[in-house]
Amino acid sequence: MPVQSIQAVAQDIVLQAARAAAAAAIGAPKLTGDRTGVKTVIVYGEDLQAFVDYLLPLCGPDGRLNTYMFGDYLCVKDALEKGDPMAVVLVGGNTLRSELGWDCGACGFSSCAEFNKYAKDHIAPGGVGIGPGCNWKAFDIGMAQGFAVAAAYQMGVTGRLHYSYGAAGMRAGFIEDVSICAGVTIGPVRRALWDEWYNRPVLAHTFNYDELLKSARQVFPHHFAGFCGRGDPPLRYSPEWQAKPMYVRYLEDPEYEEKRRKAVTDALAAMAKYKEKMKK
Amino acid sequence: MPSVYIKEFPAWTPHDANRRENGVLAARLMANAALTAPKGGGVDSVECAIVYGEEDLERIAREVEQLAYRKKITARLWRQRMFTEAVMVRESDAVLFIGSYRAGETPLDAGCGFCGGGPNCRYFYEGHVTKYGMVDRLDVDIEKVSKRLIHGPLCTLRVIDFGIAVGAAVKLSTNLLVDAMPFFSVGMAGLRLGYCRQSHVVVGVCISSKQKNPYVDVLPDYHLMHMEKVQDTLRKNYVISRIVYWFDYRNWVPKASEGAIRRPGAPWYPEVEAKVEEETGEE
User: Fold this and answer.
1) What are the chain B neighbours of A122 within 8 Å (beta carbons)?
2) Is B162 touching A (CB cutoff 8 A)?
3) How far is CA B254 from its chain centroid?
């Protein structure tokens, strides 16, 4: 019997793990029963190029437009270029309507009927998904995603959860009729479990030291407020801060510098006459 | 020689307590699995509480039953579900409450659109009173929200993280081979009783290691038909049937000629068996 190297069977392993993850997602318990309609789709091989094509315009070729998705973009691109087998299991469901009748208040309405009435006229896409949604259906989708990621991890194959690939999958039409979708990445099987994503060589030196520090400086002054999904954190200047985002910049202010310089000079000048007196 | 003896019945005996203790151990590992589960941005948002013991489980079960009365008497499905799930709490070894302390307070601010649609977090922030970009519950309209189970709107991305956490915890139970089932009703009871101290949304994962999974294959009206009720009915009635005939065991015992002593293979009820034989022609 020939001895196979792991790379020769990497595609099989990745698909095996992807199938286990997909089955686990379907097999997860659901608080809402079948009403959420959790779906899974396994994307692998050439179809992964769709994720690269979706993320490139969002991040910019140098990743300066969205620093956080840049890693996701480079990782799939790198795997495809090197021919390293990888799969993404899309796990999603539809939350746009509630037939539960639980009237729990989680959506901000006192009853499911009120929510449904509102939702019907307000369906709109966001950054990665579509809303408004029933939170318990979203919870069930999350449980399915948790089962999927755990299944991959328990097989010893790298698995992470990304909304970027989920959004790409939705928009590419790989998975239909869902409002929330995440991608569980399976593989590549090249390196240690936790080295596979943001530690891989292709990501080294994507940002230089100055840029890393700039990013850190942008969040420090206002106490890390806001998820800096684009690398630029918005400032919470009023209750309506979400309506008109204002961003933080780190700048030199020559006018203020001049005022400060003058203030120190004036203060010392004010003390000069006392100093003179003390000398006598 | 020290040993650990484990047996399921009777409940609440030392050998049953040994079994329950292992359920609490499983709950501890599942709680950690909920914490290590992946979350958006790697931001912590989940807290856990493990509750066990007869008194506390009973308290939770009663709170679940109270939820039944939130709806009118015609909402039978809801009422039956609450009462059935209260029984399931009583039949558990432990309840692992998992809650999200960020879903109602501190969104990820990613503009994902899951809560209200649209590329920003307006639905969340406009659904609450806010100050400095933070949720301010001081000025909340108490008349409007006091009747709700959950004070939403919640950040749905945080709710999904919460779902992933509960999923990871329940997935671990499949490895540990303990029975575990997550419940909305038990979670709401836990939320009201305050077990997950900072959370605005909670799910209760009931855990048990019994020889029949208490969370599946139940009867209608299970609140009247579960094992404990059946046992109680037996206990209530048995003694009466035992004592109704006065039998002084010291002075009299039924004779062999009356049928008191049975030979192997002898029929229990000769007259019945004779009739059956006559009707069916079989011996």
Assistant:
1) 116-117
2) yes
3) 49
Q: Least CA distance to A242: which residue of chain B?
A: B122
Neighbour-count burial for B46-84, b at 16+ CB within 10 Å, e otherwise: bbbbbbbeeeebeebbebbbebbebbeeebeebbebbbb
Rg (CA), chain A: 26
Hey, is the C-beta of B53 within 8 angstroms of any chain A C-beta?
Answer: no
Per-residue pLDDT reduced to its tens digit, A72-129: 999 999 999 999 899 999 999 999 999 999 999 999 999 999 999 999 999 999 989 9
Distance CA B195, CA A260 (A): 54
* Å between B58 CA and nearest CA of chain A: 22
| Other Cβ atoms within 10 Å of A82 Cβ, number | 11
Return the CATH superfamily for domain B14-218: NADH Oxidase (3.40.109.10)
For residues A160 and A185, the answer to whether their CB atoms sit within 8 Å is yes
B115 interfaces chain A, CB cutoff of 8 Å: yes
For the segment A39-59, what is each residue's pLDDT rounded down to a tens digit?
Answer: 999 999 999 999 999 999 998
Nearest alpha-carbon partner for B163 in A29, A128, A108, A242: A29
Tell me if chain A has a CB within 8 Å of the CB of B170. Answer: yes
Task: Evaluate whether A120 touches A156 at the Cβ level (below 8 Å).
Answer: no
pLDDT at A237: 76
Whether B256 and chain A come into contact, CB under 8 Å, resolves to no
Nearest residue in chain B measured CA to CA from A231 = B110
Cα separation of the two ends of chain B: 54
- Six-digit token string for B216: 């599946």
Cβ–Cβ gap A243/B122 under 8 Å: yes
Mean pLDDT of B221-249: 89
Q: How many CA atoms lie within 13 A of B205 on its CB side?
A: 35
User: pLDDT band at residue A227, thresholds of 50, 70 and 90?
Assistant: low
Show the tokens assigned to A114. Answer: 């009120």
Location of each CATH 3.40.109.10 domain in chain B: 14-218
pTM of the model: 0.88
pLDDT score, position A229: 46
Strands (E), A115-214: 124-125, 130-131, 159-162, 180-186
Q: Helix (H) and strand (E) counts for chain B?
A: 10, 6
DSSP3 helix / strand / coil % (chain B, rounded to 5)? 45, 10, 45
Q: Which residues fall within 8 angstroms of residue A55, CB to CB, at 6 or more apart?
A: A69, A70, A72, A73, A76, A164, A168
Q: How many residues does chain A have?
A: 280
Helix B14-36 / helix B156-176 crossing angle, nearest 10 deg: 140
In this prediction the ipTM stands at 0.87
Q: What is the distance in angstroms between the Cα of B188 and the nearest Cα belonging to chain A?
A: 9
Percent of chain B with pLDDT over 70: 100
- Collapsing DSSP to helix, strand or coil, B99 comes out as strand
Contacts of B187 (CB under 8 A, 6+ apart): B97, B99, B201, B202, B203, B204
